[in-house]
Amino acid sequence: MAGASQTGQQLAKEGSRMENETTFEIQEKDGLLVHQGVIRVPYTWAAGEVASRFYAGLREKKVLGLRCPACKVVLVPPKKVCHRCFSDLTDWVEVGDEGVLQTFTVVHYSEPDLHPVEAPFAYGIIKLDGADTGMTHLIGEADIKGLKAGMRLKAVFRHQPQGNYLDIAYFKPIEEANHG
Ligand SMILES: [Zn+2]
User: Fold this and answer.
1) Which of 32, 53, 65, 133 is the most exposed place for a label (fewest CB within 10 A)?
2) Ligand 1 centre and the CA of 92: distance in Å?
3) Domain limits, the chain
């Protein structure tokens, strides 16, 4: 028992030495040994050819899509293959940073490990000007009770884009020009 505990302490010590690395500890409770561990899982994820170019565009505060050579649909976010006619897509186009809110949902509970912002907040599907499909994103700077499908939104980029989806921090409602 003492030996096992010692080993556990040793490992735990080693674990804390390697900060954020895997930690492991053995505790004895009511004659049972309880193993407690935290496993760090390093990984590398390749975004792939299409998403890499899309994210590189976001890093420059540009929203890129792929246009189908056959049916002319513009996919944003881009996909390698057209979902309508299965053509290979290679024709990159830049679309607008404003668009129409197609639909949305309001989240009323906070889940810090899952949600990028605190509740209540809204997710929407936004069809950008020049695109034929919508992108899912956060809606910010908005009165969520005033959200309506069909309203216009504009992308707000974060100050220091890094090359990922959250380079657009959120979409915010914009006034139509004739509403002054
Ligand atoms: Zn197509």
Assistant:
1) 32
2) 14
3) 2-38, 49-179
How far does residue 88's CA lie from ligand 1's centre (Å)?
8
Q: How many Å lie between the centroid of ligand 1 and the Cα of residue 67?
A: 8
The answer to whether 133 and 78 have CB atoms below 8 angstroms apart is: no
- Any idea what DSSP says for residue 179? G
Q: What is the pLDDT of residues 34-74, one digit of tens each?
A: 888 888 888 898 989 999 999 999 999 999 999 999 999 99
CA 76 – ligand 1 centroid, Å: 13
Going by C-alpha positions, the residue among 136, 109, 139 that lies closest to residue 125 is: 136
Scanning the structure block, which residue is given the tokens 């565009």? 57
CA of 34 to the centre of ligand 1 (A): 57
Per-residue pLDDT tens over the stretch 125-168: 999 999 999 999 999 999 999 999 999 999 999 999 999 999 99
Residue 81, classed as helix, strand or coil, is strand
State the first-to-last Cα distance of the chain, in angstroms, to the nearest integer. Answer: 77
- Interval between CA 129 and ligand 1 midpoint (Å): 18
- Of 55, 64, 59, nearest in space to 161 by CA: 59
Quick check: helix, strand or coil at residue 25? strand
